[in-house]
Structures are given as structure tokens and as C-alpha cells.
Design a protein that fits this description.
Layout (H helix, E strand, L loop, with lengths): L13 H14 L5 H6 L3 H16 L5 H14 L3 H13 L4 H24 L6
Helix pairs in contact: 1-3, 4-5, 4-6
Length: 126
Amino acid sequence: MTIVKSISEQEAEGEIKAVYEQVKQMSGGAVPPTFQAMANHPEYMKLVLQKMQTVMGSPELDKKTKLAIAFAVSVLNNCEMCITMYSQQLTDAGFTDKQKVEILSVIDLVGSMNHFNNGMIIKPGK
């Protein structure tokens, strides 16, 4: 449950409805709850959609790499909504369960090394 009223697809009108149609194209046919909450501030919702289109539409990295990064960041930020969403998108993109565990193992390895280096105050080049 969100802390604001979500605006459902059925309730959407005008510019919100237009943005929802664009969101549905990017998200596999549904408007995620995040955008239904953002619809309370249409200008911000449009800005986030534009940012998503720019970042996820850029050809510099392939879609699978971007999804793996998005999943990893979501795990690190402990966002249950995003972990669930990106995990499904990884599956849809052809990732196996073993590959998902591998992503988590990289997070575990690098995270633990980061904590060790921070605790030891190890600086680059020292």
C-alpha cells in the first residue's frame, strides 16, 4: 500500500492516460504501481519516463546488461518492488536461476571486499 492514492489505469485521464500508454509500452503492457503513485505529480512522472527512455533506450549497453545492473542496484537498495520486477524481467530476457544467483554472488563478493577495505581504511595505491 502506498502512502498516496494510486491512480489506476481506469481513473487516468488526459496527460496521465497518455503517459500510461507510453509506460505500458516499456513495461510489458501494464502500468507499474510506481507510476500509479507518481501520477499524483504528472510533471515528475513524465520526467522519470523520459529518463527511463533515455537510459534504457541507449545502445551503449545491451538490454540484458542494463537489467542485471538494475537488479543488482535494487538488491543493494533493498527495494522489494524493484527486485521482484527486475527478477521477472531477467527471466523474460533469458537469464537462468544460476545467473541470477551469480549476480547476487558478485554483490556479496564486492560488497564484502568494500566493507573490509573501508574497515581497514585501505586507500587506492597504498
